[in-house]
């Protein structure tokens, strides 16, 4: 495993998303379970194009998450600008084979700490479909608070916020 990583947790390695991740990351975009609450499946060519844009996005942080013991690809976490505002948004996608094992919590928690301690971000927003109960529960476990519910993308969205100053 490449030792050039950004964040290491007990079980995960988080590195900036790279061309080496594309073949495995495409699986996130073509999986019905992953994309159920993210607007639906995306064709492979469109997924590759999106991933290439993410790799070169200078104003956002896109991280691949891999299991430390095997190097297996688990998902992507990103910090980017939230819908035309100055706030940063936390987003994530994990493969279904990684669900329910705590990898998402562990990796996202470490990204939140990185945002607070290294990037000096004071406030994070995370928006998810209200019917995505698992994601809502994960955000609550990570100490995000439900701020609002709005209708966007044809369905009700729950908007969660986390004040990183309260964590210091």
Automatic annotation (TrEMBL):
Protein origin, superkingdom: Bacteria
Matching InterPro entries: Acyl_CoA_acyltransferase, GNAT_dom, N-acetyltransferase
Domain N-acetyltransferase, residue spans: 11-145
A single GO molecular function term of this UniProt record: acyltransferase activity, transferring groups other than amino-acyl groups
UniProt cross-references to PANTHER family, sorted A to Z: GNAT FAMILY, PUTATIVE (AFU_ORTHOLOGUE AFUA_3G00765)-RELATED-RELATED, N-ACETYLTRANSFERASE DOMAIN-CONTAINING PROTEIN
Name of the protein in its database record: N-acetyltransferase domain-containing protein
Organism annotation: Tissierella creatinophila DSM 6911
Species classification: Bacteria, Bacillati, Bacillota, Tissierellia, Tissierellales
């Amino acid at each position: 495993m490449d030792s050039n990583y950004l964040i290491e947790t007990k079980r995960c390695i988080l590195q900036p998303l790279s061309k080496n991740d594309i073949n495995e990351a495409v699986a996130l975009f073509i999986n019905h379970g992953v994309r159920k609450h993210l607007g639906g499946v995306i064709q492979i060519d469109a997924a590759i194009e999106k991933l290439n844009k993410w790799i070169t996005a200078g104003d956002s942080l896109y991280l691949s998450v891999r299991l430390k013991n095997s190097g297996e690809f688990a998902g992507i976490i990103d910090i980017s600008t939230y819908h035309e505002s100055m706030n940063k948004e936390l987003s994530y996608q994990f493969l279904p084979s990684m669900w329910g094992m705590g990898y998402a919590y562990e990796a996202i928690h470490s990204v939140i700490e990185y945002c607070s301690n290294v990037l000096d971000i004071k406030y994070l927003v995370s928006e998810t479909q209200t019917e995505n109960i698992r994601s809502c529960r994960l955000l609550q476990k990570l100490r995000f608070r439900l701020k609002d519910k709005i209708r966007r993308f044809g369905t009700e969205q729950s908007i969660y916020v986390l004040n990183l100053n309260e964590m210091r």
